[in-house]
Amino acid sequence: MPRRPILTALRNNFIAGLVVIAPIGLTLWLIWTVVGWVDSFVWPFVPDAYQPEELVNRLMGRVPMDANWIEVNVRGIGVVIFLIFTMLVGWMGKGLIGRSFLRWGESLVARVPVMRSIYNAVKQIAETVFAQSDTSFDKACLIEYPRKGIWAIGFISTSTKGEVLTKANTGPMTSVFVPTTPNPTSGFLLLFPTKDVIELDMTVEDAAKFVISAGLVYPGEKDMPDSIGKLAKRITPSKD
């Protein structure tokens, strides 16, 4: 007779465990995969004499084909080399010589039709994603969309400027990105009169959680055990 409640409890515990383990496991797996990918990309550019395996064996007085040759596969060193190299290039690019060299390189790329299109597209994406701006998605907001009386969560992008603002002739306007659920990387760019945009006190991270979870995780819910308990209650079938 008590067999069904036991199986139900085991199932609920298993699903609750997945809620805890899945994000941690996927995060670690993604980091491990990205680190391995960066290593595989960087190491071919490093001379053999400076590979970790060569350095370790050389310090220990061993030569190639030695029976006691030590194989070294340290994951993550390639990432460190990549970070150092990128920071060095960024430091050089900020200087007068670096900027001049970049302008010269871009002028050469601009003469090649296909390469020019690819370079400009990648450059715009990189500047959009990595540019340090004080006005990029720093506020969550509430707007009426897709019609009056229906509300949606959005992220304030910038104040609308230029021709769009002039032709709309509605006064100050705000550019708002309205994400889709459960994938917030896609969505719609909407231009609203600033007076119709209601700024929220919640952080952008809380608003993103709200959107990704399709409204299941409300801003301010930080107690993981309670969240798991609520999930278990939703999964447990009623006794009726």
Please explain how this structure is put together.
- The protein has helices at residues 3-42, 52-59, 77-94, 96-109, 113-130, 162-168, 204-212, 224-235; strands at residues 139-144, 151-159, 173-179, 187-193, 198-199.
- It has 240 residues and is of the alpha+beta class.
- The protein has two domains: 1-94, no CATH class; 139-216, SH3 type barrels (Roll).
- The two termini are 16 Å apart.
- The model is unreliable at 227-240 (pLDDT under 50).
SSE map:
Layout: H1 3-42, H2 52-59, H3 77-94, H4 96-109, H5 113-130, E1 139-144, E2 151-159, H6 162-168, E3 173-179, E4 187-193, E5 198-199, H7 204-212, H8 224-235
Antiparallel strand pairs: 1-2, 1-5, 2-3, 3-4
H/E series, N to C? HHHHHEEHEEEHH
- Coarse structural class: alpha+beta
What number of domains? 2
Q: Roughly what fraction of the amino acids lie in strands? A: 5-15%
Strand arrangement across the biggest beta sheet = 4-3-2-1-5
C-alpha Rg (nearest Å): 27 Å
Query: What is the 3D shape?
Result: flat
Mean pLDDT: 77
Number of helices: 8
Jot down its keywords.
about 240 residues; alpha+beta; SH3 type barrels; 8 helices; about 15% strand; five-stranded antiparallel beta sheet
